[in-house]
Design a protein that fits this description.
single chain; 331 residues; alpha+beta; two-stranded antiparallel ribbon; 12 strands
């Protein structure tokens, strides 16, 4: 049974996914042992998990694309299940609107993306049509999303001092950084000794390297949860055509909305894409109306409502949204 402490614990780990239980105990008002047991129960049931992935904007390598896929009605679930096995397909959504499936695809370069789209995705039985939009820049991404279970004082106490840096890292270290990030993909709270064994690096090096890649923003840690925890919100994707002069302001306005999980500038028919989490469809309409008042020339080219998420950042999800497995993201 999910209760208020579970909700607060998940939201606390959205503030700092690797925060020690001792730091969360005070703000949440319970002892560390209770938090550890609660998290173990949530994770074992597939109701919550922490993952890690590289930021393409910060690490200076790789690219992401949003790929819309059309399928025959009787093949949508089968195609999604097949694509979920692909390490390049980081996330898969079954959606309404002008597509059947929406994929977030990771690649090291344009040649790799082209090879995946033509040689791996295209030949999958049931794939009828593919439309691709490159992500030029991510304005805001899902790790910052909050369900509102914590008040500002609790969030501030959990976050602690910033200490974030933006120093570049020499190319010779990028491969080791990527190996560390990939090791954390399955379990973002993996202890340092286990990370050291997985990567072959000394534990002290792993601790220092992880602090660096998090501080620079090259590694993104994120806590996600099943609908049992999140309360079955409605996910929606807006594909917007924004005049170039309005694009920076429109992106900032949408990124600042509490409903926004992701906002990205893209190269395709739509140049701004935003993923919103709303309680009902009418809320989506109000957001569009407010946007139109500020930017009358903006056009919504398509709207996707999320029906089911078979895969989220490498994590396989069952029909009820619980985590069932993991396929490492390997561009």
């Amino acid at each position: 049974m999910i209760d208020e402490l579970d909700l607060a614990l998940v939201d606390a780990l959205r503030v700092d996914p690797r925060a020690p239980w001792s730091r969360l105990a005070g703000p949440l008002g319970v002892d560390p042992a209770t938090l550890s047991r609660r998290w173990a129960r949530l994770a074992a049931a597939g109701d919550a998990w922490v993952t890690c992935y590289p930021s393409q904007d910060r690490i200076g390598r790789g690219l992401a694309a949003l790929v819309q896929v059309d399928c025959p009605p009787d093949r949508v679930s089968a195609v999604a299940a097949e694509l979920a096995r692909h390490p390049q397909a980081a996330s898969i959504e079954l959606v309404t609107g002008g597509a059947d499936l929406l994929l977030t695809v990771a690649a090291y370069d344009h040649e790799g993306l082209t090879a995946y789209l033509l040689d791996r995705l295209g030949p999958v039985p049931g794939v009828q049509r593919v439309r691709t939009s490159l992500v030029e820049r991510t304005v805001v991404e899902g790790s910052r999303f909050s369900s509102g279970a914590l008040d500002p004082a609790q969030r501030a106490a959990i976050a602690g001092p910033s200490g974030r840096t933006r120093r570049p890292v020499a190319d010779r270290r990028i491969e080791q950084d990527l190996a560390l990030i990939q090791a954390l993909g399955a379990d973002g709270r993996m202890p340092y000794p286990a990370l050291a064994a997985r990567t072959g690096l000394p534990a002290a090096t792993v601790r220092r390297r992880l602090t660096e890649v998090r501080g620079s923003g090259r590694a993104v840690l994120r806590c996600d949860a099943s609908p049992r925890v999140t309360g079955h919100p409605l996910g929606a994707m807006l594909w917007l055509d924004v005049p170039p002069g309005d694009l920076p302001d429109a992106a900032r306005r949408l990124a600042a909305l509490p409903q926004t999980r992701m906002c990205a500038i893209t190269v395709g028919p739509a140049n701004l894409v935003v993923h919103l989490t709303v309680s009902q469809v009418s809320e989506l309409g109000r957001i569009e109306q407010e946007l139109a008042l500020c930017f009358p020339a903006v056009r919504a080219l398509d709207r996707h409502l999320m029906l089911r998420t078979p895969k989220l950042l490498g994590h396989l999800l069952g029909p009820d949204g619980r985590r069932t497995g993991y396929v490492p993201i390997a561009p």
